[in-house]
Amino acid sequence: MSIVELHNVRKAYDTKIAVHGLSFKIEPGTMFGLLGPNGSGKTSSIRMMIGITVPDSGTVSLFGQPFDRSQLIRVGYLPEERGLYKKMNVLDQLVFLGQLHGLDAATAKKRSLIWCERMEITEAIPKKTEELSKGMQQKIQFIASLLHEPDLIIMDEPFSGLDPVNATLLQDTLVDLRKEGKAVLFSTHRMDQVEKLCDEIALIANGHLLLSGSMREVKSTYPRNRVQVVFEGSDAFLKHPAIEEAKNYSGHAEIKLAPSSDLAAASNAVLAEALTGARISRFEVMEPTLEEIFIERVTAQNAANANANGVAHV
Amino acid sequence: MSSVQPSFFHNTWLIAKREYVERIRAKSFIVMTVLIPALMGGLTFAMNYATGKNAKSDVNLAIVTQDSRFGLDLQQELAKHKHPKITANVLSPQGGGADTRLTLEGELKSKDLDGYLWVTPPVSEHAAPTFEWKTRARGYINTQNELSESIRTVLTRQGLAHTGMGANDVEALMQPIDLDASVASKDSASSGEAVAFGLFFIMYFVILFYGMNVARSIIEEKTSRIFEVLLATIRPEEMMAGKVLGVGSVGLTQVGIWLLGAIALSAPGLISLGDDFAFHITARQGIFFVVFFFLGYTLYSGMAAALGAMTSSEQELQQMNIFLMLPLIACSGVVFTVVSDPSGTVAKVFSFIPFCTPLIMYVRIAVSQPPWYEIAISIAGLVLTIAAILWFAARIYRVGILMYGKKPNLPELLRWLKYS
After folding, report:
1. Do domains A4-219 and A223-286 have the same CATH topology?
2. Which residues numbered 32-51 in A keep a CB inside 8 Å of some CB on B?
3. ABC-2 type transporter transmembrane domain spans which residues (chain B) (predicted)?
4. How far apart are CA A84 and CA A137, in angstroms?
């Protein structure tokens, strides 16, 4: 049973189509990354999953059933921008939001206190929300979306505005929740986080699904034509003909090999060349990073769109 | 679907409760609750004091008449008044009257005299004399009542004596009838009018103030994006209903505190504000106040909710506020006409315009007894309008609340109504 299933979902606003025939599934116990540039339709898609808006066509299913508002009690949602009552006391706020998700006041209070401890913000409990730092507010919002122990956790840009220590705390919490069998969907621009955390991804741009699948599947469709080299000494080897493009960040080079039927041979040739003039401390051949895939696919799609528009104008 | 229905009330209740508790706790609520009656009370007291002083100070006047017996009788009669004390000199007109008038006008200017009564003798035997009352300042117009009352007494007494009645009988007949005077219907009517005005303005301000509060708090939630969290579990209708009920209860609480305070203050033995200032609210006035306040508030806060959902900042809202204020301003424009003629055309027409019904029909009920079917029709029209406004507002709310930055134009608004 999929936790979320979008089937051919379409949503148009007055002037533009936000989502074109989008389909994907999220299984229990997976961390799902919804990726895409700004304005690509991530938030529009999420809003349809939780019934804030209704798709023009296509279907949304939650927990194996057609969408129904009564299922929302099993969903935890963290919106992209902070949505908290500024003047309200933190604990009152958490209890209120917990109650809206069907908890009684006592349970909501008990869980709030436990979560505040886990998120290391016990000192914020008696304060008003507006007195807190942005990061702290983000943690409150994070707790509010989890109090009712949802089976589906949807986080729109959960790590924005957090320092590395707190971002890690939230990441670890999400990993723990996935281990408990919850499905976690999060949208982000931060590809390094996705690469580290996600089992499955979907990349959308301009409302279209560009690619989706497990992280391994997605990556395996790309050739292992990237080489990372950490070295000391001459950088002359970066001029090797097998290299299509190279960036050197003072002793840390990122290389893209020219297309070839035998990439392994090409990378070996580069390594041999490098060893003649430099001391190599690391040499790694790999698939493109998710970030590179992202940029490549989105750029290609934009170009295709521009062409399509150009044709339309003629 | 069965689990959705009960949660409507649950969610609405939670939203309303939060709205209520947070607002009642806010400093601004306490300040408003104390400050407004203090201001209004202070103002009323000051006005009462200022006008009261004029009316209650002694009046010194002159009676100009050729009939000295009438003059002396009237002088005696006027001397009976205690509030204010009236002293009168009797003069007979000199030099065809012109000289006397000149002298008296001079005395009025120099404030030696507060006013004079000029009596022109009757043209024929059976006609009554004519009277002219000139005063130094408007405040002495009040003395007019005492004056005409005394004149009537004197004339009646003379008339009775003329028919041959004995002086003792006349005196017995002309005994002042204290009891009747103090409960005279005119007095209670004017106090009823005062209460009607008072309640009218309380309703006016509370509806306007709390209606705008609904709009403002919707905008606040839009800018803080809290609604996005809320909409992920509850429906826009629940949010709107909760907000309207919560904010409205705050308004009722505030009015309740004011009314209880007013009753406590005017209770005997505490603070006496004087007989004129007694604040008697009848059960009828009270019940209809609650009914019309509730209906009026629901109507206007529904409109305010739609305005709040359509706009995205306080400034924009202020431009739209005119839609809320216009009908209310129209009501306060006609309220004086309605009070003085509660079953006149103006009163009838305005009490059937749904946007004016809560205020104008209420005032009519407070000062008169409109036929029951008129009340029923006006309430029915109001309830239908409220249903339409809430339906409209809920639609606007659902779509409008997710839009930012741009004020919708009319075609967009119409399209919003079609979204589910």
Report:
1. no
2. 47, 50-51
3. 27-394
4. 8
Q: What is the DSSP letter of B129?
A: P
The CA angle B293-B298-B300, to the nearest 5 degrees, is 95
- Give the tens place of pLDDT for each residue, A240-252: 888 888 888 888 9
Chain A residues in contact with B5 by the CB 8 A cut-off are: none
* Identity of the amino acid at B243: K
* Minimal-distance CA residue of chain B relative to A47: B232
How many Cβ atoms are within 10 Å of B324's Cβ, its own excluded? Answer: 21
| Cβ-Cβ contacts under 8 Å, A144 against chain B | 229
Going by pLDDT thresholds of 50, 70 and 90, the confidence category of residue B402 is low
Whether A72 has its CB under 8 Å from any CB of chain B: the answer is yes
Tens digits of residue pLDDT in B32-88: 888 877 887 777 777 666 665 554 567 788 888 888 888 888 888 888 777 677 888
Q: Do A52 and B415 touch (CB under 8 A)?
A: no
CB of B143 closer than 8 Å to CB of B130: no
Length reported for chain B: 420
A230 dihedral zone (left: phi>0; alpha: psi -120 to 50; beta): beta
> Is residue B273 classed as helix, strand or coil in its secondary structure?
coil
Decide if A255 contacts A228 (C-beta within 8 A): yes
Q: Which residues of B touch A83 (CB under 8 A)?
A: 224-230
Q: What is the pTM of this model?
A: 0.71
Cβ separation B226–A96 shorter than 8 A:
no
**Greatest Cα-to-Cα distance within chain B, rounded to the nearest angstrom:** 100
Contact A80, A47 (CB under 8 A): no
Cα–Cα distance for residue pair B359/B344, rounded to 1 Å: 16
Q: What is the model's pLDDT at position B156?
A: 82
Which two structure tokens, joined as six digits, stand for B57?
Answer: 């100070």
Domain chopping of chain A, boundaries? 4-219, 223-286
- The single-letter DSSP state of residue B200 is H
CATH says A223-286 is which class?
alpha beta
Give the CATH number of domain B56-173: 3.40.190
For residue B2, the tally of other CB atoms under 10 A from its CB is: 6
Pick the CATH number of A4-219 from 2.160.20.10, 3.40.50.970, 2.40.128.20, 3.40.50.300: 3.40.50.300
Please tell me the distance in Å from A76's CA to the nearest CA on chain B: 8
Closest Cα of chain A to B27: distance in Å?
12
A 87-126 residues with CB < 8 A to B:
87-88, 96-97, 99-102
Q: What does the alpha-carbon distance between residue A217 and residue A290 come to, in Å, rounded to a whole number? A: 12
Q: Which residues 6+ apart lie within 8 Å of B214 measured at CB?
A: B243, B244, B247, B301, B304, B305, B308
Q: Which residues contact A147 (CB under 8 A, 6 or more apart)?
A: A76, A94, A97, A98, A101, A103, A108, A111, A112, A115
Contacts of A89 in chain B (CB under 8 A): none
Q: Which of A15, A52, A56, A153 to mutate to test the interface with B (most CBs of B within 10 A)?
A: A52
Tens of pLDDT, residues B185-221: 444 445 667 777 887 888 888 888 888 888 888 888 8
From-to residues of CATH 3.40.190 in chain B:
56-173
Q: What is the pLDDT of residues B387-400, one digit of tens each?
A: 898 888 887 877 77
Q: Are B330 and B204 in contact (CB under 8 A)?
A: no
| pLDDT in the model for residue B416 | 62
